[in-house]
User: Fold these one by one.
Assistant:
Number 1:
Amino acid sequence: MEINVKNVKYQYQNENSFVLKGINMHIEEGKITGILGKSGSGKTTLLEMFNALRIPSEGTIEIGDFCIGKNIDIDVTNLRFQVGLVFQFPEDQFFALTVKEELELPLKFYNYNKNKIEERIISSLQMVGLDPSYLDKNPQTLSNGEKRKVALASILVLNPSILVLDEPTIGLDSESASNFIKLLRLLKRRYNKTIIIASHNTELLHKIVDYLYVINDGKVVLEGNKYDVLK
């Protein structure tokens, strides 16, 4: 599914100024799109709108047949089945005491076939390069790189069309970051995922994205081919 962001503005409650000030974007299906900006530029706020954690104060976000906007009815449950969001700090999205239970949660929520749950869990772990020995481990005790992979597996277990990642390599050592980049490339190439990555890391985005937006002070100030933008 492609995504069209149309003149999106966002204002937090009890604040006078807008965090996002008229964002327009077109995100192609099956591509990796980067959003570059410093802390406080509005990246995370925008990402949270892609699966309706936040609703635009003005403007709309069209994702396939879904339309996210103020006073627009939307099937949030179905939207989040299609759009998976991985937070900047993976431990923020962990609820269970074992990796197996963590990956079971979304499947049970969506009434996945009980007889196929374990097969689906193992398949999702393998997609991110983890073996079944992780099933009984506590996700909170894993390394940063392993946490990031488990968080991604917990999204992939539902096989969403779109993956949204907030600072996916922050806190990772160079080897773990390199392995994570290879994983994202594989997900795009083999599974045709549409991937959106927000980061302030220009080196990361240069290595992986097809198209790049630069956000500053809540506005898109530059966009285009990553080589032209970063040059």
Note: The chain has a mean pLDDT of 92.
Number 2:
Amino acid sequence: MRFVFAAVLLFAATLSPLAAQEPAMPGVSDAEREALQGALTRGLTLYQYDQAAWHTTDTMLEDVPEDRLRTIGGWIVEPVGDGLRVIYWRQGADAFFPVYSADYSADGVSARTLHPDNAPALDQAQSALVEARQIAFPKDVARCSAKPFNSVVMPTGKGDGSVYVYWLTPQETLSAMPLGGHYRYEVRGGEVVDQRAFSKSCIDLPTAQGGADGKTPAAVGIVHILDPVPTEIHVFSVFAGGLPIFVNTIEPKRTWAVEVSGGQPRARLIDPEE
């Protein structure tokens, strides 16, 4: 199969399910393989956390009185059982307190709870997530939407207490998803120790809902110049857009296929002679 990449590539090829990232990838270093596995894991988590916040926001707006809605400063997400719990918090004089919480899973939203004013404060781990979001608030970054960023906060998994804070350009229409204007900050010990953008420009890709011409593409493609492998944003966008993404990296020059198979993100190198 021959690929021609511009800013966006649409084509109607028949796509076979992609295999999971395999240990044997000719020409892929151990560091690149580790980076790709991290991207797959974080991209799935990003999508799950984003979905949990989206769906519980709907119930929160139904369940929380208007006067208490005004006190909510944000939310955090944490794993619980087979799903995720979203806690909407308010800031007190010296602590953060839950206003509303709900659980999200494959069965939908449950455990909808409006917490009383005298509810116990968030614990240390929960408060660390809130504080990381406040510390890593984006300033002087290029924006791809006039609407507020969506945020996702999660532990890095490094074992040092560090936290990733993502600021994501919101998807404004069902027919297109933004692939630009996404940022990641790493917070450790109360300060930002690393930050990055995932693109150098704004770009929207069509989704499974159909492109601008009303036709539904079979897949989309993007040229990526910042990393040698796909990132968690590509993985997140595969879930959000409902379409496979072909990522053309420059250093080294390779084409990667990223898609969802059996509910899990998958990636592989594409042979240019296919």
Note: Confidence is low (pLDDT under 50) at residues 1-21.
Number 3:
Amino acid sequence: MDQDQYHLMASLEDRHWWYVARRQILDRVIRKRVGESPGRILEIGCGTGGNLGFLSRLGPVKACETNDEARRLAIEKTNLKVAGGSLPDKRPFADEAFDLVCMFDVLEHIEDDRGALASVLANLMENGYFILTVPAYMWLWSRHDTLNHHKRRYVMSDLIRLLKTAGFEPVHASHFNTILFPVVALVRLAQKALRLNGADDMVMPTWLINSMLGSLFASERWFVPHLALPFGVSILVVAQRK
């Protein structure tokens, strides 16, 4: 990601509907599928630290982030230990094992996603949990993906196959951001048909729109931990080390 994208992220992640609602969904999924106290937690690719607050309420947390400026912002925001490093070759905390490893919208940034997942496995305790989110469907590709240096978007079957090959056993998999999916899909398909670049998704809407979108998206926290939603803008998988 470009430096200005990290500063934009830092300015939005405490109040933008997408970040706020996603944290509520992830919190529910972890509590349901992993436990109220999952143990030692590692977040890989923590960005500017927006998820570290809710993760800290679940257990002791460490984090890593490749970008120096994002890491500085995360430490400034949370006062937690945030290491450098990257996957698959410069794995942080290489001599430690964790009960829960999280990668929230990170894998799509990594060229060698297969190698990255193998590296994650090495940081997991036996029977430890891995929770992963990624953007779905290459046909939803937009300017937002380009600005954030995404390498790909995923389909569920390919992602599950990739995880199993790396040594994980998926225990729960679902799409999410499903309620708003028809609107997102129509907008992005229209942009492609009309050959419009489109605006970046990460802009702060008015208070009313932000509240409405946040409520709609956050309502999925009652479904995603329990059901396998068949489509959505994103994919979530909870897996265990085999």
Note: The longest helix spans residues 17-33.
Number 4:
Amino acid sequence: MEQGTKTLQFEPVRLEMRELVHRYIKPLQVENSEYTFPSLLMWGQGGYIHIAQEMDVLYILYTFPHLAPFMLAPLPLDPADYPRAIARAAAHLRGMGYAPSFRGIAQAWAPYFEAAGYILEEDRDNFDYVYNMEDLRTLTGKRYHGKRNHINQFLSQYTYTYEPVTPALVPECMEVYEKWLEGRDLEVFGVRGERVALEIGFAHMQELELIGGAIRMDGKLRAFSLGERISQNMAVIYFEKADADVPGLYPLINREFVAHAWTEVRYINREEDMGLEGLRRAKLSYYPAYLLKKYRARLPESPLV
């Protein structure tokens, strides 16, 4: 059977697929946080994210229960294959009974979709916030005056130690997470899936090459953060949780994690705000170096999703 006449062979994300995904995202220097392998594995729990490879193109399919199936932008090793990859992905979605729909489209890939007749829309809720590492490490300058004040307020009342997260610290980190959960709506922030995603990340820290940092106060762990270096110049922070009852603890773990773990990179990607007003304000308050734009794409006859 000729290529193009059969469906793509998708499989749920598994740990063993790490090298396969890296074969595409590393040479293509993909910075979008949703393409990183830890993100695919952690959030694909339950079989919601699937991967297929065909003729040197990687395809990523999302099948979350509350959304119509869609794909991330395909990743062909040869850019000349992009038109074919879009057509192949669209044919698969049609075969599933759905209108072709794509997300996570970086600016460099947008012209291929426009040439294929797609309508593009900026997906502001999913722009990645990318910061200069030195800004987060030092918090120097007038614009970070408030952050420094919060940390100084903390230091005037408390003492702390910083610790790298090891497997032995994972139960204490989960205690921090459980406290963070108290009183929160489980549907907000995708918390139901987030807890499992965090557990998967902690369970496979070594295999995923994740790095964590934590703050301990009076013998008790009170904050942690977890991330990954994705390139020579960039690290991604996947999780940051702290006891919100302790003023200044969030800016402290933010600063300390960068200062201890990420001084060899230029940029820190702290992912998207998901359209949540409070989270957007918090991320903007650290003055990103740039927002990593992403687009959604649909055909003219299809509604935006």
Note: The longest strand covers residues 220-229.
